[in-house]
Every structure is written in C-alpha cells, then in structure tokens.
Design goal:
332 residues; mainly beta; 14-stranded parallel β-sheet; 0% helix; 49% strand
Length: 332
Amino acid sequence: TILIEPGDYPNTAVVVDKDVTLAAADPASPPRIWAPEDGPTALITFDGPVEKEGPYAILLRDSEAIVSGLRFTGLRSAVHASGGAPTVSDSYFEGVGVPYEGGFPEFDRHAVTVNDDAQATVIGNTFDGGGGIGVYDLPVVQVLDNVLTGGPDICCDFGETSVVSGNTIEGAGVSGIAVFRGEGVTVDGNSISEPGQNGIKTQGRHLVTGNTVTGAAGFAVIAEGEDDGPIVRDNVLRDNQAGITWSAASGELSANTVTDGNNGVIIVEGAPMVTDNTIEDNELVGLSLGRTAQASISGNRICGSRTNIVFPDGSGSTVDDTNEICEDATDG
C-alpha cells in the first residue's frame, strides 16, 4: 500500500502497472490531485476503429491496482483503467470531466474511463459535476453504489455480464445511464432523478430491473435498436415527461409502475411482451400502440389518463381481456 499524505498534487500523471493500493494517509484529509493540462494521454478506443487520446492523473495499466479514498479535481479523465482488473473506490471527483450534452459522445470527457478490456470495479465514489463514468469497447465492469450529482452520467459500451447497480444519479446532463451495443448487462436498483432528458437508455438484450426514475424531461426508459430489446421489469417510473418508449424488435415490459407523467408507455414498433404493469394517472395517454407495432398486451392495469389506450385500426398488436382498462378520464 502506498499512502499519500494530505495536500495538493497538481500536474500529476502516474502510471500504475503493479498490484498496489494507492490510498489517503489520512482519510479525513484526502490528497487533492489533478492532471496536467498538456498531457500525457492514454489511448481510448470506441467501437473498434474509433480512437482518441485522453488525459489522466492516474493510469491503471494491466494490473489489479486499487485507488481508494483520494480526491480529484481539474480536467478530463482523472483515472483511466486500461487492461487488468483494477478497483476505483471511495474517492471524490470534483468537477472532473465534462457532462454529456448530446451528439456523438466525447469519450475522453469522463472522470473515470474504463477501456481496453479492463475488468474494473468502480464502487462507492462521489462525482460532483463533471463527466462521470465512461466504459468503452465492451469490457466487463462492475459500477456499484456511486453517487453522481449535477451533470455526470454512466455510459456507454459495457461487456456481457457487466453490472450497473445501486447508483444514485441526480441531474445528469442527458441520460442517467446509457448502455449501448452488446447484451447481458444488468442495470439494477439505481435511483435516477431529474435527468436533462432520459433516465435509462438501452440498445440490446439487457436486464433493466428495480430502478427508480423520477422527473425526467424526456423518457424514463428508452429501449431501441434493430435487434432483441431488453427485459424491463419491476421499475418505478414516476413524474416523468413519459415513462417508457419502445422501438426494439422484441423484449419484455413487465411489472413496472408508470405513474404521474404526461404519457405512460409508448410502443412505437417492435413486438414486446407487455404484461402486469400498472400504468396510472398519466395526464395524456396511458398506453400508446404504434400502427406497425406487434406488441402482446396482457394483465395490465391502465387507468386515470385522458386517453388510457391508443390502439389504431390495423395495428398488429393484441390486447386481451386480462387487462384492466378504465374509462378515459374526463377532467384530463
């Protein structure tokens, strides 16, 4: 274990390629570390041929090193994990990185970046502003019990069996959690409030379960893509502009509670199984079925909206008599 004394450590750029622990000598007064403005940098790859250099204060390279209890500030990418199985825990990131504002991701913008098949664990950290946690090129990671406030998010490109669980995200710039490509990622037990657009955005066959999303300016959950979609189960989605929008080819929406938004569940296209959900007290529409959708709707309670269900003529969806669909509200 290497204990770092209290104080400021500007222009720090350290490569750690051994199985050591970097920790605060005095946990009550953690050292404050930031990367130099002019490098050095580490290579970040995204979706194969796309590459970019990103700065770092600590580069964890091909090791099982642990970074614990430190404080980071300053520019982008304070900690970069490249290969190995490192752990970043119980550290504080103050305005490190840049919140995502839309468009193609600036994948050097995060406070913690995981790349190059690093089997990393990012656990128990606090991110106050800045860019949050970026995962690229499908490494298997554990992102657990972090607190992100004032802009940062968890994104983007997780390997199969990765877990994103128990995180609290308040005020993300666009989406609280975004999971692209691949399959088999578990997004479980996260609490997301007041994201700039969306709570959880997924592409692929992932498990989205036990999450709470409130106050999204867009959608609480987005499921999209040309292939199989996620299993979205047992989530509480409350007071969002809209609860769930679905355009993936297939998948499952089950036992979710979608309430108090403008719109509840919107199936644009695809053939999901929509079962045993409670869709209540959404101001405009409870459940909307697109004309080209082929959803199977059963066992749901859909009540309290101005229009509880939109089911256009010619739709390929089926709505059976196990659903409880109340009369449309007359007072909006």
